[in-house]
Every structure is written in C-alpha cells, then in structure tokens.
Amino acid sequence: MQGGKEKGRQDTAAPAIELRGISKAFGAVQANKDISISVQPGTIHGIIGENGAGKSTLMSILYGFYKADAGEIFIRGKKVQIPDSQAAIATGIGMVFQHFKLVDNFTVLENVILGAEGGALLRPSLAKARKILTELEREYELHVDPDALISEIGVGKQQRVEILKALYRQADILILDEPTGVLTPAEADQLFRILDRLKAEGKTIILITHKLREIMEATDTVSVMRRGEMTATVKTAETSPEELAELMVGRKVLLRVDKAPAKPGDKILEVENLRVVDDKGVARLKGVSLDVCAGEILGIAGVAGNGQSELLEVLGGMLGATGTIRVNGQPLPLAGKGADGRARRAAGIAHVPEDRQRKGLIMDFMAWENMAFGYHHDAAYQSNSVLMDNGAIQRETAAKMERFDVRPPAPRLFARNFSGGNQQKIVVAREIERNPDVLLVGQPTRGVDIGAIEFIHRQLIALRDAGKAILLVSVELDEIMSLSDRIAVMFDGQVMGERLPHETNETELGLLMAGIRGEAA
Amino acid sequence: MDFLTLIELLDSTVRSATPLLLACLAGLYSERAGIFDIGLEGKMLAAAFFSAAIAFMTGSAWLGLLAGIGASLVLSVIHGLASINYRGNQLISGVAINFLAAGMTVLVAEDWFSEGGRTPSLEGSARFGPIKLPFADQIADTPVVGPIYAGLLSGHSVLVYVAFAMVPVTWWVLYRSRFGLRLRAVGEAPEAVDTAGVSVIRLRYSAVIICGVLCGVAGAYLATGLQANFTKDMTANRGFIALAALIFAKWRPWYALAACLLFGFLFAIETRFQNIALFGVPLPLQLVQALPYILTVVILAGFVGKAIPPRAGGEAYVKER
Amino acid sequence: MQKMPAWADAILVPLISLLLAALLSGLVIIGIGEDPIAAFKLMVDGALMRSAGWGYTLYYATNFMFTGLAVAVAFHARMFNIGGEGQAMLGGLGVALACLYVPWPHWSLAILGSCLAAMLFGAAWALIPAWLQAKRGSHIVITTIMFNFIAASLLNYLLVNVLRPQGAMDPATAKFPEPTHLPTFRDMFSTSETILFRGSPANVSFFFAVLACVLVWLLIWRTRLGYDIRAFGHSEPAAQYAGISPVRITVVALLISGALAGLMAVNTTQGEAERLILNSTEGAGFIGIAVALMGRSHPLGVFLAAILFGFLYQGGAELALWTNIPRELIVVIQALVILFTGALDNMVRMPLERLFLSLRREG
To answer: Which residues of C touch A351 (CB under 8 A)?
Structure first.
C-alpha cells in the first residue's frame, strides 16, 4: 500500500485540503451544515469550536470514518472520494484521534505496522518497519522504544506512536483531534515543537481544539465552528481570543466567573493519608491528605490519570482505600460495609461524577427515574414499606427541571434524549438540591455547551456561598483557576502542593502537574 | 492399570479430544476476533447431520465432510449477520443457532430417512476409516515404543490428524502472519484496525467463517469418523465444553490442545469404565457422566487462574460519534 | 430525540419479527413436503377450537409464563439465565419431596407448600452459578448450561437409586397422595350439563402463573429492589456510583429467576403427572428464553408470548399426531423467534426507525 502515491507538490498554488459544501446528519441531528474550508500546504490550521459544534465529525469525514451526505473534497487540487480510512491513508492523510486507536497489548512496532504490514509474513514486515521507525525518530525527534507494550508507556508516548503511525504511512496531511487533553503543559509544548518541525518539513497540519490558547500559540490560520456551521476563517495573527470566543458562542462571553471572596468556615471534609492500590497492584493514591472548609471550593488540578478520579471514587464510596476520611469530624468507613455510595450520601456527601453518561445517569432510564438515582431509598419516595411512590418522584422532578432550566422539561423523556448540557443539569440538580454538606464535582463542564457551563458554575458558587464544602476536580486549568478558592495539584497519586489562585499562575501549576516542585514549594 | 490398558485409554482420549479440539480452535478464531460464539454446539450438530446424510447418499465421506462444512457455514453467516452487521446480542444469536440446529437436524432427518431423527448407519467409504501409519504393523511388537506408535499414534481417521495439525497451524497464523496480527488486533481494539484502514467487518467475517469450517470438520468427525451415523443431539454439549477449554487455555492454541486432551481424558474414562471406586466407595454412574460438566464449572470458577478474554469480545463494533 | 414512538417499539417490532419467524417456519414446512396453511389450520383446530385444546394450550402457557418470567427477571439485571431447565428440574424435586413427605390435609395448603419448596430448590440450583458470576466472573451462560446437565444427572441418580418405589420399573417417584392433587380446569369450570376441558391438564397453577406475572411487574417497576435490578442491568458503573452492590443484585436477581423457573414444576409435577418423572421439564426452560425475548422482558408481554407458545406447543403436538411433521418443528420456530426478536432485532428495527424518521420529516 505504500509507494503507489505521488509525492511532492508540483502545484504549490493549490490548497492541500479543500472542502466544499460538506453536510452530514445523524438521524435528525445536523452535525455539519454546508461547510467549506481551504488549507494551504505547509501550514498549521486550527479548527475551534464548542463541544458538539461538529469539528470531530468534519474531520472524521475527511478521514473516511463517516460518509458526507453532500459536498466535495479536494486534496492538492484534485477531487477525491474518501469512502474509508484506507482511501484517506492512500491520499496521504493521517489522523491522531482524541482517544488513541492503539492495541494495548501490542508493542509499539506492531501498532505502527498494523494495516500497513507490506507482506503476509510478520517477521520481515517488523524488521523493515524497525528501520524506517529509527529514521523517522531521528528526523522528527519522536523517541519511543519500538518493543515496549502500549499498556506500559505513558499517554505522551502513546500519542507519539499515533504520529509515527501516520508518518509511517507517508502522510503529509496530519489531523490532530484535541491532542493536548491528556498532556501536561510541558508535554503539550513538546508536541507543538514536533508539529513545528513537521510543518518545516512541508507537512500540512490541522489542529482541532476547544482551547483558545493553543490556537493562538500554534496555528497560522483558524476556522471557527458553531452548531455544525463554519462561522469564520481568519488569520491567527489578525484575531484575538475574545473575538474567537464570541465567534464560537455567537454572543459575548465572560471568560471569568464572577464571585465574591470566599468566607471559609470550619473544616467539613478532612482526608488523611488516603492510599489506593488497584487490582493490577499499581498504587493509584499514595497518601493523599487535604481538607475542605465550609463555604470553600477546593480545586484539584492535574493531568488526567494522576489519581484525581480515584480520589473522587474513594470519597464517593465507589472504591475501597486505606486512610482516614472525616465529615464534620465523624470518620467514615473506607472499605466493606458502610463504604458504598448510599452510605456516603447518608453521611452528607453528594457527588457529581466525572463520567455522567456511564456513572451519573442511567441513559435508558427516564429523567424522573434518574432524578431519584442513588436516593431512591429515601422515605419521601416510598408509598409504603414495599412500593415506591413514583408519582411523588415525578412531581419533584418536574419542579427541579423547572428550577434548573432543563430543556425540554419532560420528566418522562429518557436521559439519552437530552443534550450533554441538559444531562449534566439533571445530575447537578439531583445532587445540589439534596443540600449536602460536601459536594464532590468531577469534570462538571466536560461535553457541556457554554450556556450550560455558565449556569453550572453559578450553581456551584451559590452552593459555596450557602456555606457548603466543594471539592472540584477538573482537567481544565481555566476552570480550576476561575472557580477555586484554593488549588491543590495532583501528580502520580500525590498532592504536589497547594496554591491560592491569585498567588499562582499557569506556569507554576503546570510544573506541579508535571511533578516538578519549584523553589516555592 | 497395565500399560496396554493405559494405551487404550489414551487412544480413546485422542478420539474424544478431537471434536473438542476442532471446536475449541474454531472458537479461538472467532473469539480472538471479538465474536463470542456459544453456537459452536449447533454448528457441530448441523455439520454432523449433513455430513452423515450426504455421506450415506453418495457413499463418500469426503462429500459428506463438504456438506457438513457447508451446513456449519450457513449458521456461521447467520451469526455473522446478527453479531457483525446488525449488532445483535451474540449470546442470544448463539442460543438461537443451537436451537435451530437441534430442531432442523431432526426435522430434516425425519423427512429424509424416517428413522426417528437419525441417519442410517454408514459403511465403507461413507466413513472416515483409520489410517495406518507406515511400519505400524512391523514395530507393533517392540516393547513400549511399539504400542505407543501402533496403538496410540497410528490408526486414527484423517480428521484426527487434521485436528492435531491445526494446533501448530493456528499458532503460526496467529503469531507469525499478517492475518493473525490483524485478527488479534480486531478482538482487542477494533477501532485501531478500522482507523488503520483495515475493514473490521471483513476481518470478523473471515474469523467467523474459519470458525464455521472448523466446526464443520468437528461435526463431520463426530458422525462419520467417531460414530457411524447421526443421532439426535449427538454433540452432547461438546460445543460448550470446548468453550470452557478455550477459557481454560486463555485463548492460546497450545494450551487449548492441553485443555481438550484433559476433557477428552474424562470422556475416555466415562466410556471405558462404568464402575469407578474412589477409596473403596463405588461412584454412581451418573456422577461419572457428570464429571466433565462439573470440571467445566470448576474451571470457569477460575480456580485455575483468572482468564482475561479479548477486550472487545462480545461487542459489535460501532464507530463512535 | 426519540427515533420511534413507544408503541412501535413495544408492538410493531416484535410483531414483524414474529411474522418473519412464521414465514420462515412456513417455508420449512413446505420444505419437508407439507402444506403450511393446512398445518396452521390443524394447529388452530387442535389448540383453540375446543375447550380441551385450550386446556392444553393454557397448561403449556403456565410453564412458559414461569420460565419466561425467570429469564425476563435475569434479563433486567443484564444476565442470561439459560439454566431454567435445570432449575425447573430441581423445582420438581422440591415439589415431589413436599408432596410425598408432608401429610397435607388439603390441596390449597399443599400447593402453598409445594410452591415454597419449588422456589427454594430452583433458587438453590441458581445459587452456585450466581455466586460464581458475582464473585469470580464465571460466565453465567456456560455455568448454567453445565448445571442443566448436572441437574439431569442428579435427578437421574435420585429417581433410579433413591426415590423409586420398590419394585417399580420406570425411574419415577411414587404417586403423590390424594390430598395434594390440584383441581383441574375441568373440576373448576364444568357444570353438571356440560363438561369442559375434558382430559386436559390445565389446572389451578395457571392462576398462580398469572399472579406471578403481576407480582413480577410490581417487583420490577414499583419496588426499590426492582429499581436496583434495572439500574444494575443498564449500567454497572452507575449502579456502583449509586451504592447498589453488584454482587448482591447479581445473586438476588438470579435467585428470583431460579425460584420462578422452579415454580414451573408445581404445574407439571403436582398438577399434571402427580409424581416426579425424568425429563418432566420437556424443554420449557429453554422456551422461556424465546418467551422473554418476545415479551420484551415485560410481564404482560411474557403473559401473551407464553400463551402464543402454549398454542404453538399444543398445535405442534397435534401436527405430530396427524401429519408427518415432527414435534421438533416447535424447536425450529422457537429458534427463529429467538433469532428475530433477540439477535436480529436491529434488522427489523433499523428500517423501521428510518421509516418513522422520514415520516416525521415530511409531517
């Protein structure tokens, strides 16, 4: 499959990629509406937009993952059909997906050659690939051990494997979908250096992101998408983050959250020396200690996978651990009986989980059933000692949907039929309206549109001002910086340090997130 | 137990293990590609009937084998349709296939032969007869080596040798060929295969079809090699036991061989010894008959170590939105 | 955005699947040289046109309600209990012991006792696979299949060596004493002038099956346990988040499932045979799968599907009696129903969803 493709760019005037009038609908949802875009060769072109704006769909069409309902694709001035990924690869397009498409129990080398083996026998293919890989590594400084298993290398390296896969297939157009979501700021910087180098070699790069900063720093031109439509394409040097944000949302947005200074009270949640070892014997929490006071938001910053999820799960009663947790001075059991989600709720801990679709909601339950989820043993929800009072739950749900502006306000609609933002509002409504002493919040705005983000942030601030203790985990540094009254940074299952938001900056936090303590620590 | 009885017992073990081994390897291809298949039983049963029926009509065991493979393939394609194209529940599809085979074989047998759901007895070239390995007679009298060679290794039908040869072949395909690499990948991470430009659907169908062919051979061996006709429900749960052996073997070919030989040994004991005494207490016949099933449960209970199935097993591949 | 109205999902999809299964079954009948229309008429005549036919249809339907509910409850917890057959066999053992060794004064007490015994024994037989699934992740499908076989061996041993009365030839228990005999439909519904349900085995346990449908409906949709079971079935991580113990729900759901399967034996063993015989279940445990799938795991659906299969079963017996179509036809139909309503569900659903979507766009 290699070789047969013409290389070089005889006609430098032709754009590397040109899309004309691309449309795509999933059922009744119009994901892409009449999108046209043109990318010059040897540039980095950013595509920015909110979650669900249709960025990933557009790129998946370019990579042959989906078939467009209408529209044309031109690569280097030539009209092409891209019915599948095979065709995309043959036209020189490579894609690095947000969720890596790697086989965990294969080696780096096996992953690189998969689908591009170049022969029916494995051994010669692997030997040939090993040589090419060494050259590529030298050329682009993409160092990875070819014989390491994917499951044994970090996400940063895994991403390099994805880039190597594309380069091995001689891609000269590289699409990266939200590439920095799982990287530390330092790793992200390294990635952008690699991208610059690729650009210098004449490769064309499309960078999909929702982070304005990355667009401003790394791209030459940028296109903005909103609700499936392309709203603008501008030169990065001629725009500003504020303008891009407005283009993304369609109105002026506050990039900062309005809030009064916190008035912290007594310690409500106390955590001491929390340790978790997973079933593979890997330590996930290595002695975490922290406190959250009444009327305070403690933000936990960190790159995904450094123990924040486990911390939330232990506090929420989903995972066993050793150590001490006290709520209002009362110690809670950490394993066995009385250490489950129901007992935690009884102890005054409410939990907005990180993954609302898998954990926070039952997608095949109706909204009203979800509104009782986790609290369905409450006396208020029972008719008698045997039967539940479904009518009472439905009435309460209708009222809560009204207060939290859930759209549509239909208690009998299945959870899967709400948008991401409205699903999250159902979860937040359920947990906040319980008036808990402690609220655990994981990634509250992931996959949520900006309107709902503002709403949810206001609710969290209001709960704080009502004197409750809030523990916020987010991988979005902006969100941590703007919401938190105090920030703890986690790295490798430990708290690297605590900072006050007005006394720190992204660089310092970034170093802590990478496990590097500065002099200040 | 003297040496010759042991040889006979092992010889019987090899025969009993053969259909299990073929079915187990069939399941290995399917499950390595991410398709659970509890329809091995039904495919074997259908193959057993059609191989016996066609062998009886044509007098050729080989034509019978082809017919058996064909019948098994039809069921494979149904399973493929349900689990690959229509994202159906693979367990339910497998159950349906088992019932379909159980009902159709008797229905057709009655229509064709009217002998109460069985086929007439097969004779001569309608069966796969024993193959005598070279010099088997000459060295049969040599002590130790003779009985092992002549009594244990020689004298099986060609399908037995095919089954055992499939073990190294499968190992080689899985770990040394491009197809094997892709097969293993599609069972672990179909999205990786898809984005690498390889068709998940085509790969999974290949696996399902190989599975069908091997089940076909297994069924044909049952009716035209091990036995000399088809009888109702003659597979007697071998398909399920093969699955247990596959889990025991953790989806690896050489271990599959060992697991199937173990089960074959239990079956051999059951057929050879009706009365077994343990510490002087005679075991009831029913207990001896139930032993392979009890062992299966014990193995599944993981008292022999935890087995981790292919990660994408049992789930249809849907491109995420 | 819902793709299809609820009524289409609940009625239209299974109906089309059923028609497809019927169509293919018709082809099978043609394939073995019989006339499907005549066969269908014969089935209707034999199963529905006389009260005795109804007596058989409802007798079989009673079995299928219990086993269908058993499979359905397990389905709600996203588990596939193929072990209804074995659990029903053990239920039969429980019924036999209760009827033989307790001196019941009257059938109304005897049936309560035998129901309890059937549930206990059926649930006990589900306990080990349930525990292995919950604690060790052993695949419930294969373990329950194995337990069916082990149950058959166990029953064989007990009937041949332990429970068989001295001097008797066939492997069965002694006849149950008179006070345990259940009133049949004939006893209940015949008047002095007209005898209804003559010679047919339908008996009072039918009403227990109907009651079981109602109770299971209440359990699944109106109790906390049912809520837990459904939540766990839809999403295990979510269940854990809510504090629902996966181990507890797995075990409890399968125990309920086993108990329901075991209850079937009250109908066959106490109601009909009035002694425990080998193979008293006759594959009803497996038909429960088709019934549950067709009934969409909803008790009302199970009730209707059970009556449909009761009709098929009785009609199939008539066919075997009067034509050259063997009883195994019913196994084929059962397989086709499972295939179309279970595994190939999307084959029917996807085109329908597209149809409704385009209708809505135009409308």
So the answer is: 241
Contact A177, A191 (CB under 8 A): no
Chain B contact for C109 (CB, 8 A cutoff): no
Residue bearing tokens 């594309």 = A166
pLDDT of A13 higher than 70: no
In a domain, C23, yes or no: no
- Dump pLDDT digits (tens) for A217-242: 899 999 999 888 898 899 999 998 88
- List, in order of start, the domains of chain A with CATH numbers: 103-169 (no CATH), 267-364+436-513 (3.40.50.300)
Mutate to test the interface with C, among A26, A371, A376, A426 (most CBs of C within 10 A): A376
Partner chains of B (3+ C-beta pairs under 8 Å): A, C
What is the separation of C-alpha A452 from the centre of its chain, rounded to a whole number of angstroms?
A: 17
Tally C-beta pairs within 8 A across A and C: 78
Q: Is residue C176 part of a domain?
A: yes
Chain C partners of B306 at a C-beta cutoff of 8 Å? 137
Q: Given CB atoms, is C358 within the 8 Å cutoff of chain A?
A: no
> Which residues of B are less than 8 Å from A66 in CB distance?
319
Distance between CA atoms of residues A14 and C193, nearest Å: 97
C114 occurs within a structural domain: yes
Cβ separation B193–A114 shorter than 8 A: yes
CA–CA distances in Å: residue B278 to residues A405, A481, B246: 73, 73, 29
CATH code (residue C82): 1.10.3470
Give yes or no for B199 touching A (CB within 8 A): yes
Q: How far is residue A133's CA from residue B235's CA, in Å, rounded to a whole number?
A: 51
Burial of residue A103, with CB atoms counted within 10 A of its CB: 0-12 exposed, 13-18 middle, 19 or more buried: buried
Determine which of A1-10, A118-127, A393-402, B6-15 has the lowest per-residue pLDDT on average: A1-10
* Residue B295, Cβ density class (10 Å: 0-12 exposed, 13-18 middle, ≥19 buried): middle
Nearest alpha carbon to residue C112 among C180, C164, C160: C180
CA atoms within 13 A of residue C51's CA, in its CB half-sphere: 12
Distances (CA, A) of A68 to A28, A372, C351: 15, 41, 20
- Please count the other Cβ atoms lying within 10 Å of the Cβ belonging to residue C130: 27
Which of C238, C245, C360 is nearest residue A361 as measured by Cβ atoms?
A: C238
DSSP A205-267: EEEEES-HHHHHHH-SEEEEEETTEEEEEEEGGG--HHHHHHHHHSS---SS---PPP---SE
Going from the N-terminus, what domains does chain B have, and what CATH number goes with each? 3-129+141-300 (1.10.3470)
- Tell me if C140 is assigned to some domain: yes
Query: CB distance A390–C222 less than 8 Å?
Result: yes
Q: Give the number of domains in chain C.
A: 1
CA atoms within 13 A on the CB side of B96: 30
Asked if residue B57 lies in contact with residue C316, where contact means CB atoms within 8 angstroms, the answer is: no
Contacting residues for C178 by C-beta, under 8 A, at least 6 apart: none
ipTM: 0.92
CB of C242 closer than 8 Å to CB of A337: no
Residue C347: list chain B partners with CB under 8 A. Answer: 81, 86
Q: Which residues of B touch A59 (CB under 8 A)?
A: none
Q: How many A-B residue pairs are in contact by the CB < 8 A criterion?
A: 82
Instruction: Note whether A457 and A477 are within 8 A (CB).
Output: no
Structural tokens at position C187: 């006893």
A88–B contact, CB cutoff 8 A = yes
Query: For A366-385, what is the mean pLDDT?
Result: 94
Range of the domain at C232: 41-189+199-362
CA-CA distance, A303 to A474, in Å (whole number)? 9
A88-118 tens-digit pLDDT: 999 999 999 888 999 999 999 999 999 999 8
